[in-house]
Amino acid sequence: MAVDREQVLRSAAALLTRRSTATMDEVARAAGISRATLHRHFAGRDALVRALEELGIAECEAALEAARPDDGPAAGAVRRLVRAIEPSAALLAFLYTENQLFEGEEQNAGWARIDARLTDLFRRGQESGEFRIDLTPAWLTEALYGLLGAGAWAVAEGRVARNDFNHMIVELLLGGALRRE
């Protein structure tokens, strides 16, 4: 019986986003395969995490394409992006905590591409007068990542309704936490 690698990755992502310390045995069980079969596809946890990273990057890049970040007002593009990336937010939250993905020379160039596109979006919003200029585009990019991760965890834990995910992230990011007169 052929093993569907994408299905194994999706099963691993679903488990690891709920329990980041799950063992390879638990990942295999969640995917409905033996540990030996899992190891034939992924030599160990690091290889599995790297494959999940590739999946996360692909999903981020697809969300960016769907959001059309160069079309219309930048705030609208941010809203479209958060909506498009929501299905992948839990995977991104897991990846965000995997420090080995972001250290040293082995950092995947995909993250740099995504960072550059997001930074360009925030810079465009600043240049058009939509976004505050006292916060750097790089910081706004990091804030978006942090809010996506926090939102995914809050939804997974039942502290936030799934239907509120998009609204709360976009409104906090774009509006800030300060009450305006």
Question: What this model shows, in words?
Answer:
The chain is built from nine helices and no strands. The protein is an all-alpha fold. Helix 1 crosses helix 6 (89-96) and helix 5 packs antiparallel against helix 9. The longest helix is centred in the N-terminal third of the chain and has 23 residues, at 45-67. The chain is elongated and about 60 Å long.
* Gyration radius, in Å: 18 Å
Mean pLDDT over the full residue set = 90
Q: What gap, in angstroms, lies between the N and C termini?
A: 64 Å
Secondary-structure element series = HHHHHHHHH
The unreliable regions are none
Global geometry: elongated
Give the fraction of residues assigned to helices: 55-70%
- Quickly give the structural class: mainly alpha
How many beta-strand segments? Answer: 0
Number of helices: 9
Strand content: under 5%
**Main pleated-sheet profile:** none
Essential attributes:
single chain; 181 residues; mainly alpha; 9 helices; 67% helix
How does the SSE layout of this entry go?
Layout: H1 5-18, H2 24-31, H3 35-41, H4 45-67, H5 74-85, H6 89-96, H7 109-127, H8 137-156, H9 165-175
